[in-house]
Design a protein that fits this description.
Largest sheet: 8 strands, parallel
Distance between the termini: 46 Å
Strand content: over 45%
């Protein structure tokens, strides 16, 4: 019997991926945000969040809540909390969403395609949509 370990690594390269915005670890922001260029979240951000021109990257130590929209891909390693006791967060991206094994989300997630890795936890709806050409 052969021990076969099929693993896939997700590589985040800020320069190649046009990630020019960052919420640093230890920072916390609440409000309405519009980011041009990709966003990497290592701290906490909550509110109405829109990202254009690059991906959304939620690092393992990062936390998001609210309505999160992007015109690119989303790489979700961290925590997405609900907006309130009764409303889940919403994640809507036009590209693919990658849900890593460390993801813990209380959110409805909509994307053109979904890639889930063993261990990802999502409380909410996962929906795919056709990407308009």
């Amino acid at each position: 019997m052969t021990d076969h370990n099929d693993t896939e690594n997700i590589v985040i390269d800020p320069e190649a991926m046009n990630i020019v915005n960052r919420v640093a670890q230890g920072c916390s922001h609440v409000g309405n945000f519009k980011w041009v260029g990709g966003l990497i979240v290592q701290g906490r951000i909550e509110g109405d969040i829109e990202v254009t021109g690059g991906p959304i990257v939620l690092m393992p130590e990062g936390e998001m809540a609210g309505v999160i929209r992007g015109d690119g891909e989303a790489y979700l390693f961290g925590t997405i909390t609900s907006r309130s006791d009764t409303d889940l967060s919403e994640v809507n991206v036009l590209g693919s969403v990658f849900m890593a094994e460390t993801l813990n989300a209380k959110a409805n997630i909509t994307a053109s395609s979904v890639r889930s890795y063993d261990g990802a936890q999502v409380e909410g709806r996962i929906k795919t949509m056709r990407r308009d050409a």
